[in-house]
Amino acid sequence: MADHDQPPIGGTVGAALVQLGDVPLADLLAGAGDGVLAHVLGTLAAEGEPGRPGDVSAFESSF
Amino acid sequence: MPADAPPSATGHRPAVAAPRIRQVVLKVHSRCNLACDYCYVYRHADQGWRDRPRVMAPGTVSRVADRLAAHVARHGTDRVRVVLHGGEPLLAGPAVLDRTVRTLRAAMPCGVALDVAMQTNGLLLDEATLDLCHTHGIDVGVSVDGDRVANDRHRRHADGRGSFAEVAAALRLLARPEHRARYAGLLCTVDLANDPIAVYEGLREFDPPRLDLLLPHGNWSTPPPGRHPDDPATPYADWLIAIFDSWYAETPRRTGIRLFESLIALLLGGHSGTQALGAAEPDVMTIETDGTIEGTDTLKTTTASAMRTGFDVFRHSFDEALRHPSLAGRPIGTAALAAACRACPVVDVCGGGLYAHRFRDGAGFTHPSVYCADLLRLIQHVRTVVTADLDALRRRVAGASAPTPVARP
Protein backbone atom coordinates (compact mmCIF):
# COMPACT_ATOMS: atom_id res chain seq x y z
CA MET A 1 0.00 0.00 0.00
CA ALA A 2 1.30 3.37 -0.85
CA ASP A 3 1.36 5.74 2.04
CA HIS A 4 -1.81 7.42 0.91
CA ASP A 5 -5.47 6.52 1.09
CA GLN A 6 -7.15 4.63 -1.72
CA PRO A 7 -10.34 6.41 -2.74
CA PRO A 8 -13.25 4.00 -3.13
CA ILE A 9 -13.98 3.18 -6.71
CA GLY A 10 -16.62 0.49 -6.40
CA GLY A 11 -16.65 -2.75 -8.29
CA THR A 12 -15.82 -6.20 -7.08
CA VAL A 13 -12.34 -7.62 -6.82
CA GLY A 14 -12.06 -10.60 -9.10
CA ALA A 15 -14.52 -9.32 -11.69
CA ALA A 16 -14.52 -6.84 -14.52
CA LEU A 17 -14.83 -3.30 -13.20
CA VAL A 18 -16.83 -2.27 -16.26
CA GLN A 19 -19.63 -4.68 -17.08
CA LEU A 20 -20.55 -5.35 -20.67
CA GLY A 21 -24.18 -5.69 -19.56
CA ASP A 22 -27.00 -7.65 -21.14
CA VAL A 23 -26.18 -6.89 -24.77
CA PRO A 24 -24.20 -9.74 -26.32
CA LEU A 25 -20.58 -8.93 -27.09
CA ALA A 26 -21.13 -9.72 -30.77
CA ASP A 27 -23.95 -7.16 -30.96
CA LEU A 28 -21.87 -4.55 -29.16
CA LEU A 29 -19.03 -5.21 -31.55
CA ALA A 30 -21.28 -4.91 -34.58
CA GLY A 31 -22.46 -1.51 -33.44
CA ALA A 32 -19.21 -0.20 -32.08
CA GLY A 33 -17.86 1.49 -35.20
CA ASP A 34 -14.11 1.79 -35.64
CA GLY A 35 -12.85 3.56 -32.55
CA VAL A 36 -10.67 2.36 -29.71
CA LEU A 37 -13.51 0.67 -27.83
CA ALA A 38 -14.46 -1.30 -30.93
CA HIS A 39 -10.89 -2.49 -31.27
CA VAL A 40 -10.68 -3.68 -27.67
CA LEU A 41 -14.07 -5.38 -27.90
CA GLY A 42 -12.83 -7.13 -31.01
CA THR A 43 -9.80 -8.35 -29.09
CA LEU A 44 -12.02 -9.64 -26.31
CA ALA A 45 -14.25 -11.40 -28.79
CA ALA A 46 -11.23 -13.03 -30.38
CA GLU A 47 -10.06 -14.25 -27.00
CA GLY A 48 -13.33 -16.02 -26.38
CA GLU A 49 -14.59 -15.55 -22.88
CA PRO A 50 -13.34 -12.32 -21.30
CA GLY A 51 -10.94 -13.13 -18.53
CA ARG A 52 -9.53 -16.22 -20.16
CA PRO A 53 -5.76 -16.22 -19.64
CA GLY A 54 -4.01 -15.20 -22.79
CA ASP A 55 -1.09 -16.91 -24.39
CA VAL A 56 0.85 -13.76 -25.09
CA SER A 57 3.86 -12.80 -23.09
CA ALA A 58 3.96 -9.19 -22.16
CA PHE A 59 7.62 -8.22 -21.87
CA GLU A 60 7.53 -4.47 -21.48
CA SER A 61 10.82 -3.65 -23.18
CA SER A 62 9.88 -4.86 -26.63
CA PHE A 63 6.96 -5.53 -28.94
CA MET B 1 14.45 -38.07 -15.96
CA PRO B 2 16.43 -34.87 -16.53
CA ALA B 3 14.48 -31.68 -16.14
CA ASP B 4 14.74 -30.87 -19.82
CA ALA B 5 14.23 -34.34 -21.23
CA PRO B 6 11.94 -34.26 -24.28
CA PRO B 7 8.44 -35.75 -24.06
CA SER B 8 9.45 -38.69 -26.23
CA ALA B 9 11.44 -39.94 -23.24
CA THR B 10 8.19 -40.65 -21.44
CA GLY B 11 6.23 -41.80 -24.44
CA HIS B 12 3.42 -39.30 -24.04
CA ARG B 13 2.75 -35.60 -24.40
CA PRO B 14 3.22 -34.17 -20.92
CA ALA B 15 0.70 -32.07 -19.12
CA VAL B 16 3.13 -29.85 -17.24
CA ALA B 17 0.84 -27.07 -16.13
CA ALA B 18 3.34 -24.36 -15.28
CA PRO B 19 5.58 -22.55 -15.08
CA ARG B 20 6.84 -22.17 -18.58
CA ILE B 21 8.55 -19.63 -20.72
CA ARG B 22 6.62 -17.79 -23.36
CA GLN B 23 9.37 -15.40 -24.34
CA VAL B 24 13.14 -15.39 -24.35
CA VAL B 25 15.01 -12.11 -24.45
CA LEU B 26 18.23 -12.91 -26.24
CA LYS B 27 21.06 -10.45 -25.67
CA VAL B 28 22.83 -10.91 -28.97
CA HIS B 29 25.06 -7.87 -28.36
CA SER B 30 25.91 -6.39 -24.97
CA ARG B 31 26.97 -2.91 -26.05
CA CYS B 32 25.08 0.05 -27.51
CA ASN B 33 25.82 2.80 -30.03
CA LEU B 34 23.82 5.26 -27.96
CA ALA B 35 24.42 6.48 -24.42
CA CYS B 36 20.89 7.23 -23.21
CA ASP B 37 21.12 8.59 -19.70
CA TYR B 38 18.11 6.60 -18.43
CA CYS B 39 19.11 3.18 -19.81
CA TYR B 40 18.33 0.36 -17.40
CA VAL B 41 21.13 -1.78 -18.80
CA TYR B 42 24.02 0.65 -18.34
CA ARG B 43 22.85 3.34 -15.92
CA HIS B 44 21.25 1.38 -13.10
CA ALA B 45 22.30 -0.90 -10.27
CA ASP B 46 23.38 -3.97 -12.23
CA GLN B 47 26.63 -3.31 -14.13
CA GLY B 48 27.10 -6.91 -15.19
CA TRP B 49 27.34 -5.92 -18.86
CA ARG B 50 30.94 -4.80 -18.28
CA ASP B 51 32.13 -8.38 -17.82
CA ARG B 52 30.29 -9.99 -20.70
CA PRO B 53 31.31 -10.70 -24.30
CA ARG B 54 30.13 -8.15 -26.80
CA VAL B 55 28.52 -10.70 -29.12
CA MET B 56 26.80 -13.98 -28.33
CA ALA B 57 29.03 -16.74 -29.72
CA PRO B 58 27.67 -19.43 -32.08
CA GLY B 59 28.16 -22.14 -29.46
CA THR B 60 26.11 -20.16 -26.96
CA VAL B 61 23.31 -19.66 -29.47
CA SER B 62 23.28 -23.40 -30.16
CA ARG B 63 22.98 -24.15 -26.48
CA VAL B 64 20.14 -21.64 -26.10
CA ALA B 65 18.38 -23.28 -29.04
CA ASP B 66 18.75 -26.75 -27.52
CA ARG B 67 17.51 -25.60 -24.12
CA LEU B 68 14.56 -23.77 -25.61
CA ALA B 69 13.62 -26.71 -27.82
CA ALA B 70 13.71 -29.07 -24.83
CA HIS B 71 11.60 -26.66 -22.78
CA VAL B 72 8.85 -26.21 -25.36
CA ALA B 73 8.76 -29.94 -26.03
CA ARG B 74 8.51 -30.75 -22.37
CA HIS B 75 5.66 -28.31 -21.85
CA GLY B 76 3.79 -29.10 -25.05
CA THR B 77 4.09 -25.47 -26.11
CA ASP B 78 3.11 -24.79 -29.69
CA ARG B 79 4.33 -21.19 -29.86
CA VAL B 80 7.24 -19.34 -28.30
CA ARG B 81 8.83 -15.98 -28.89
CA VAL B 82 12.43 -14.82 -29.00
CA VAL B 83 13.30 -11.14 -28.86
CA LEU B 84 16.69 -10.13 -30.22
CA HIS B 85 17.76 -7.53 -27.73
CA GLY B 86 20.80 -5.80 -26.32
CA GLY B 87 22.53 -3.43 -25.88
CA GLU B 88 21.79 -2.76 -29.49
CA PRO B 89 21.12 -5.99 -31.38
CA LEU B 90 21.96 -4.55 -34.80
CA LEU B 91 25.56 -4.04 -33.65
CA ALA B 92 25.89 -7.82 -33.98
CA GLY B 93 25.60 -7.41 -37.77
CA PRO B 94 23.36 -9.17 -40.28
CA ALA B 95 25.50 -12.32 -40.50
CA VAL B 96 25.30 -12.98 -36.76
CA LEU B 97 21.58 -12.27 -36.65
CA ASP B 98 20.98 -14.51 -39.66
CA ARG B 99 22.95 -17.35 -38.10
CA THR B 100 21.23 -16.87 -34.75
CA VAL B 101 17.71 -17.10 -36.12
CA ARG B 102 18.57 -20.04 -38.36
CA THR B 103 20.04 -21.91 -35.39
CA LEU B 104 17.00 -21.26 -33.23
CA ARG B 105 14.52 -22.25 -35.93
CA ALA B 106 16.40 -25.41 -36.83
CA ALA B 107 16.22 -26.62 -33.25
CA MET B 108 12.48 -26.16 -32.77
CA PRO B 109 10.45 -29.34 -32.55
CA CYS B 110 8.02 -30.06 -35.37
CA GLY B 111 4.82 -28.07 -34.94
CA VAL B 112 6.29 -25.37 -32.71
CA ALA B 113 6.08 -21.84 -34.11
CA LEU B 114 8.98 -19.58 -33.23
CA ASP B 115 8.08 -15.91 -33.42
CA VAL B 116 11.10 -13.63 -33.63
CA ALA B 117 11.15 -9.94 -32.81
CA MET B 118 13.87 -7.37 -32.38
CA GLN B 119 13.96 -4.22 -30.30
CA THR B 120 16.38 -1.67 -31.71
CA ASN B 121 17.26 1.99 -31.45
CA GLY B 122 16.99 2.06 -35.24
CA LEU B 123 20.31 3.73 -35.98
CA LEU B 124 21.59 0.80 -38.06
CA LEU B 125 18.27 -0.14 -39.60
CA ASP B 126 18.75 -0.17 -43.37
CA GLU B 127 17.55 -2.02 -46.45
CA ALA B 128 19.95 -4.91 -45.92
CA THR B 129 18.79 -5.39 -42.35
CA LEU B 130 15.17 -5.22 -43.37
CA ASP B 131 15.78 -7.80 -46.09
CA LEU B 132 17.01 -10.09 -43.33
CA CYS B 133 13.91 -9.29 -41.27
CA HIS B 134 11.67 -10.21 -44.19
CA THR B 135 13.59 -13.42 -44.79
CA HIS B 136 13.14 -14.57 -41.21
CA GLY B 137 9.87 -12.84 -40.34
CA ILE B 138 11.53 -10.70 -37.67
CA ASP B 139 9.18 -8.03 -36.32
CA VAL B 140 10.96 -4.77 -35.56
CA GLY B 141 10.21 -2.55 -32.59
CA VAL B 142 12.00 0.77 -32.34
CA SER B 143 12.71 2.90 -29.28
CA VAL B 144 12.01 6.61 -29.77
CA ASP B 145 10.71 9.13 -27.27
CA GLY B 146 8.54 11.36 -29.46
CA ASP B 147 9.46 14.48 -31.37
CA ARG B 148 13.01 15.77 -31.73
CA VAL B 149 12.99 17.73 -28.48
CA ALA B 150 11.62 14.84 -26.46
CA ASN B 151 13.76 12.16 -28.07
CA ASP B 152 17.04 14.03 -27.85
CA ARG B 153 16.54 14.90 -24.20
CA HIS B 154 17.87 11.45 -23.29
CA ARG B 155 18.53 9.40 -26.42
CA ARG B 156 21.94 10.75 -27.34
CA HIS B 157 25.27 9.53 -28.63
CA ALA B 158 28.20 9.31 -26.25
CA ASP B 159 29.42 12.69 -27.57
CA GLY B 160 26.09 14.32 -26.73
CA ARG B 161 24.60 14.45 -30.22
CA GLY B 162 20.92 13.68 -30.43
CA SER B 163 19.75 10.59 -32.31
CA PHE B 164 16.43 11.85 -33.63
CA ALA B 165 17.46 12.46 -37.25
CA GLU B 166 18.83 8.95 -37.57
CA VAL B 167 15.93 7.16 -35.95
CA ALA B 168 13.46 9.25 -37.92
CA ALA B 169 15.12 8.20 -41.18
CA ALA B 170 14.97 4.57 -40.08
CA LEU B 171 11.31 4.84 -39.18
CA ARG B 172 10.43 6.41 -42.50
CA LEU B 173 12.08 3.41 -44.13
CA LEU B 174 10.32 0.91 -41.88
CA ALA B 175 6.94 2.54 -42.50
CA ARG B 176 7.22 2.21 -46.28
CA PRO B 177 4.66 -0.18 -47.77
CA GLU B 178 7.24 -2.80 -48.71
CA HIS B 179 8.52 -3.01 -45.13
CA ARG B 180 5.44 -2.23 -43.09
CA ALA B 181 4.63 -5.88 -42.45
CA ARG B 182 7.70 -6.04 -40.22
CA TYR B 183 6.87 -2.83 -38.31
CA ALA B 184 5.97 -3.96 -34.78
CA GLY B 185 5.73 -0.62 -33.04
CA LEU B 186 7.39 2.11 -31.02
CA LEU B 187 8.50 2.19 -27.40
CA CYS B 188 8.54 5.60 -25.76
CA THR B 189 9.77 6.33 -22.26
CA VAL B 190 7.74 8.99 -20.48
CA ASP B 191 9.45 12.18 -19.35
CA LEU B 192 7.35 14.73 -17.50
CA ALA B 193 9.47 17.52 -18.99
CA ASN B 194 8.04 16.74 -22.41
CA ASP B 195 4.68 17.96 -23.59
CA PRO B 196 2.49 14.83 -23.80
CA ILE B 197 0.54 15.88 -26.86
CA ALA B 198 3.71 16.87 -28.72
CA VAL B 199 5.15 13.47 -27.83
CA TYR B 200 2.06 11.64 -29.06
CA GLU B 201 1.87 13.63 -32.26
CA GLY B 202 5.59 13.12 -32.81
CA LEU B 203 5.19 9.37 -32.47
CA ARG B 204 2.11 9.33 -34.67
CA GLU B 205 4.12 11.01 -37.45
CA PHE B 206 5.88 7.67 -37.86
CA ASP B 207 2.57 5.92 -38.50
CA PRO B 208 3.21 3.08 -36.04
CA PRO B 209 0.79 0.15 -35.93
CA ARG B 210 1.09 0.38 -32.15
CA LEU B 211 3.16 2.08 -29.52
CA ASP B 212 3.70 1.89 -25.82
CA LEU B 213 4.38 4.49 -23.17
CA LEU B 214 6.81 3.23 -20.56
CA LEU B 215 7.05 4.71 -17.11
CA PRO B 216 10.68 5.48 -16.26
CA HIS B 217 12.20 2.88 -14.00
CA GLY B 218 12.34 3.57 -10.33
CA ASN B 219 11.24 2.15 -7.01
CA TRP B 220 10.60 3.21 -3.41
CA SER B 221 14.32 3.52 -2.68
CA THR B 222 15.24 5.20 -5.96
CA PRO B 223 12.09 7.05 -6.97
CA PRO B 224 11.48 7.98 -10.61
CA PRO B 225 11.94 11.61 -11.62
CA GLY B 226 9.11 13.76 -10.25
CA ARG B 227 7.54 10.90 -8.32
CA HIS B 228 7.94 11.62 -4.63
CA PRO B 229 6.90 8.81 -2.30
CA ASP B 230 4.10 9.89 0.04
CA ASP B 231 3.14 12.74 -2.28
CA PRO B 232 -0.49 12.37 -3.41
CA ALA B 233 0.21 14.28 -6.63
CA THR B 234 -0.15 12.19 -9.78
CA PRO B 235 2.08 13.79 -12.40
CA TYR B 236 2.50 10.63 -14.46
CA ALA B 237 -1.23 9.93 -14.52
CA ASP B 238 -1.88 13.52 -15.58
CA TRP B 239 0.67 13.21 -18.37
CA LEU B 240 -0.72 9.90 -19.59
CA ILE B 241 -4.34 11.04 -19.38
CA ALA B 242 -3.60 13.91 -21.76
CA ILE B 243 -2.50 11.38 -24.36
CA PHE B 244 -5.28 8.93 -23.53
CA ASP B 245 -7.97 11.53 -24.12
CA SER B 246 -6.47 12.62 -27.43
CA TRP B 247 -5.95 9.03 -28.61
CA TYR B 248 -9.32 7.71 -27.45
CA ALA B 249 -11.18 10.51 -29.25
CA GLU B 250 -9.69 9.57 -32.61
CA THR B 251 -12.14 7.83 -34.92
CA PRO B 252 -11.20 5.72 -36.68
CA ARG B 253 -8.53 4.42 -34.33
CA ARG B 254 -5.19 5.46 -35.79
CA THR B 255 -2.81 3.41 -33.71
CA GLY B 256 -2.78 1.16 -30.68
CA ILE B 257 -1.32 2.16 -27.34
CA ARG B 258 -0.46 -1.02 -25.46
CA LEU B 259 -0.73 0.44 -21.98
CA PHE B 260 -4.16 1.94 -22.57
CA GLU B 261 -5.61 -0.96 -24.54
CA SER B 262 -4.42 -3.36 -21.86
CA LEU B 263 -6.05 -1.19 -19.24
CA ILE B 264 -9.37 -1.13 -21.10
CA ALA B 265 -9.23 -4.87 -21.72
CA LEU B 266 -8.59 -5.50 -18.03
CA LEU B 267 -11.46 -3.22 -17.04
CA LEU B 268 -13.70 -5.34 -19.25
CA GLY B 269 -12.44 -8.59 -17.77
CA GLY B 270 -9.86 -9.39 -20.45
CA HIS B 271 -6.15 -9.74 -20.03
CA SER B 272 -3.16 -7.46 -20.27
CA GLY B 273 -0.63 -7.20 -23.06
CA THR B 274 1.98 -5.62 -20.82
CA GLN B 275 3.86 -6.53 -17.68
CA ALA B 276 3.07 -3.03 -16.44
CA LEU B 277 -0.51 -4.02 -15.60
CA GLY B 278 -2.52 -7.04 -14.63
CA ALA B 279 -0.23 -9.24 -12.53
CA ALA B 280 1.68 -10.72 -15.44
CA GLU B 281 3.21 -14.15 -15.00
CA PRO B 282 7.02 -14.24 -14.85
CA ASP B 283 7.20 -16.01 -18.19
CA VAL B 284 10.09 -14.04 -19.68
CA MET B 285 13.65 -15.27 -19.46
CA THR B 286 16.73 -13.25 -20.35
CA ILE B 287 19.86 -14.85 -21.79
CA GLU B 288 22.98 -12.70 -21.67
CA THR B 289 25.74 -12.87 -24.30
CA ASP B 290 27.75 -15.28 -22.15
CA GLY B 291 24.82 -17.70 -21.80
CA THR B 292 23.88 -16.57 -18.31
CA ILE B 293 20.20 -17.08 -17.57
CA GLU B 294 18.50 -14.18 -15.83
CA GLY B 295 15.02 -13.05 -14.93
CA THR B 296 13.05 -10.13 -16.21
CA ASP B 297 15.43 -7.54 -17.55
CA THR B 298 13.91 -4.60 -15.71
CA LEU B 299 15.00 -6.02 -12.35
CA LYS B 300 18.42 -4.63 -13.22
CA THR B 301 17.06 -1.36 -11.87
CA THR B 302 16.63 -2.67 -8.33
CA THR B 303 19.82 -4.29 -7.06
CA ALA B 304 22.91 -5.64 -8.74
CA SER B 305 21.85 -9.19 -7.94
CA ALA B 306 18.06 -9.08 -8.22
CA MET B 307 17.90 -10.97 -11.49
CA ARG B 308 21.02 -13.10 -11.17
CA THR B 309 20.14 -16.75 -11.01
CA GLY B 310 23.58 -18.36 -11.03
CA PHE B 311 22.33 -20.50 -13.92
CA ASP B 312 23.53 -20.66 -17.49
CA VAL B 313 22.55 -22.47 -20.64
CA PHE B 314 25.64 -24.69 -20.57
CA ARG B 315 24.89 -26.30 -17.22
CA HIS B 316 21.19 -25.77 -16.58
CA SER B 317 17.86 -26.34 -18.23
CA PHE B 318 15.27 -23.61 -18.53
CA ASP B 319 13.06 -25.53 -16.11
CA GLU B 320 15.79 -25.51 -13.47
CA ALA B 321 16.34 -21.80 -13.94
CA LEU B 322 12.63 -21.09 -13.76
CA ARG B 323 12.57 -22.14 -10.14
CA HIS B 324 14.80 -19.22 -9.19
CA PRO B 325 13.17 -16.39 -7.18
CA SER B 326 13.83 -13.89 -9.98
CA LEU B 327 11.73 -16.05 -12.31
CA ALA B 328 8.75 -18.28 -11.64
CA GLY B 329 10.18 -19.22 -8.26
CA ARG B 330 8.92 -15.94 -6.87
CA PRO B 331 5.39 -15.47 -5.60
CA ILE B 332 3.01 -14.71 -8.43
CA GLY B 333 -0.51 -13.40 -8.77
CA THR B 334 -2.14 -12.07 -5.65
CA ALA B 335 0.37 -13.92 -3.46
CA ALA B 336 3.04 -11.52 -4.72
CA LEU B 337 1.09 -8.43 -3.70
CA ALA B 338 1.10 -6.33 -0.57
CA ALA B 339 -1.95 -6.71 1.67
CA ALA B 340 -3.16 -3.26 0.72
CA CYS B 341 -2.95 -4.18 -2.96
CA ARG B 342 -4.93 -7.36 -2.41
CA ALA B 343 -7.67 -5.31 -0.78
CA CYS B 344 -7.63 -2.58 -3.42
CA PRO B 345 -10.71 -2.43 -5.66
CA VAL B 346 -8.64 -1.94 -8.82
CA VAL B 347 -6.18 -4.76 -8.16
CA ASP B 348 -7.47 -6.81 -11.09
CA VAL B 349 -6.52 -3.99 -13.42
CA CYS B 350 -3.37 -2.67 -11.81
CA GLY B 351 -2.03 -6.05 -10.72
CA GLY B 352 0.46 -4.23 -8.53
CA GLY B 353 2.14 -2.61 -11.52
CA LEU B 354 5.51 -3.56 -12.94
CA TYR B 355 7.32 -5.87 -10.54
CA ALA B 356 10.52 -3.79 -10.52
CA HIS B 357 8.56 -0.70 -9.48
CA ARG B 358 7.48 -2.36 -6.20
CA PHE B 359 10.99 -2.74 -4.84
CA ARG B 360 12.17 -1.17 -1.59
CA ASP B 361 15.79 -1.59 -0.57
CA GLY B 362 16.10 -4.13 2.24
CA ALA B 363 12.42 -5.01 2.12
CA GLY B 364 11.96 -6.67 -1.26
CA PHE B 365 9.01 -6.45 -3.61
CA THR B 366 5.95 -6.85 -1.38
CA HIS B 367 4.87 -3.27 -1.79
CA PRO B 368 2.55 -1.40 -4.08
CA SER B 369 4.11 0.17 -7.13
CA VAL B 370 6.00 3.39 -6.53
CA TYR B 371 3.49 4.63 -9.15
CA CYS B 372 0.48 3.51 -7.08
CA ALA B 373 -1.17 6.92 -6.90
CA ASP B 374 -0.65 7.52 -10.62
CA LEU B 375 -1.95 4.09 -11.58
CA LEU B 376 -5.05 4.52 -9.47
CA ARG B 377 -5.84 7.91 -10.98
CA LEU B 378 -5.25 6.66 -14.52
CA ILE B 379 -7.44 3.61 -13.97
CA GLN B 380 -10.22 5.74 -12.51
CA HIS B 381 -10.12 8.11 -15.47
CA VAL B 382 -10.11 5.38 -18.11
CA ARG B 383 -12.87 3.57 -16.29
CA THR B 384 -15.04 6.69 -16.34
CA VAL B 385 -14.47 7.27 -20.05
CA VAL B 386 -15.02 3.65 -21.05
CA THR B 387 -18.11 3.27 -18.89
CA ALA B 388 -19.73 6.29 -20.52
CA ASP B 389 -18.78 5.12 -24.00
CA LEU B 390 -20.02 1.61 -23.35
CA ASP B 391 -23.31 2.87 -21.93
CA ALA B 392 -23.86 4.96 -25.05
CA LEU B 393 -23.01 1.98 -27.23
CA ARG B 394 -25.43 -0.25 -25.33
CA ARG B 395 -28.20 2.30 -25.80
CA ARG B 396 -27.50 2.56 -29.53
CA VAL B 397 -27.42 -1.19 -30.00
CA ALA B 398 -30.54 -1.74 -27.90
CA GLY B 399 -32.33 1.05 -29.78
CA ALA B 400 -31.38 -0.37 -33.14
CA SER B 401 -32.68 -3.80 -32.24
CA ALA B 402 -35.95 -2.62 -30.66
CA PRO B 403 -39.06 -3.38 -32.79
CA THR B 404 -40.28 -0.42 -34.78
CA PRO B 405 -43.75 0.66 -33.63
CA VAL B 406 -46.45 0.03 -36.28
CA ALA B 407 -48.17 3.22 -37.34
CA ARG B 408 -51.92 3.16 -36.87
CA PRO B 409 -54.28 5.03 -39.17
CATH topology of the largest domain in chain B: TIM Barrel
Count of DSSP H/I helices of chain B: 12
Number of helices of chain A: 2
Spatial ordering of strands, largest sheet of chain B: 7-6-5-4-3-2-1-8-9-10
Terminal CA distance of chain B: 84 Å
The count of strands of chain A amounts to 0
Averaged pLDDT of chain A: 70
What is the residue-mean pLDDT of chain B, rounded to a whole number?
A: 89
Oligomeric state of shown chains = heterodimer
Protein model, in words:
The complex is a heterodimer of chains A (63) and B (409). Chain A has 63 residues and is an all-alpha fold. Chain A is built from two helices and no strands. The longest helix of chain A has 12 residues, at 36-47. Chain A starts with 24 loop residues before the first helix and ends in a 16-residue tail after the last helix. The relative contact order of chain A is 0.11. Chain B contains twelve helices and ten strands. In chain B, 51% of the residues are buried. The termini of chain B are far apart. Helices cover 33% and strands 13% of the residues of chain B. Chain B is globular. Chain B folds into two domains: 18-228 and 281-330, Alpha-Beta Barrel (TIM Barrel); 229-280 and 332-394, no CATH class. By secondary structure, chain B is an alpha/beta fold. Chain B has helices at residues 58-75, 94-107, 127-136, 148-154, 164-174, 196-204, 235-248, 258-267, 318-322, 339-342, 347-350, 372-401; strands at residues 23-27, 79-85, 113-120, 138-143, 183-189, 210-214, 256-257, 284-287, 292-294, 308-312. The chains are: A mainly alpha (63), B alpha/beta (409). At the A-B interface, helix 1 and helix 2 of A face strand 2, strand 3, strand 5, strand 6 and helix 8 of B.
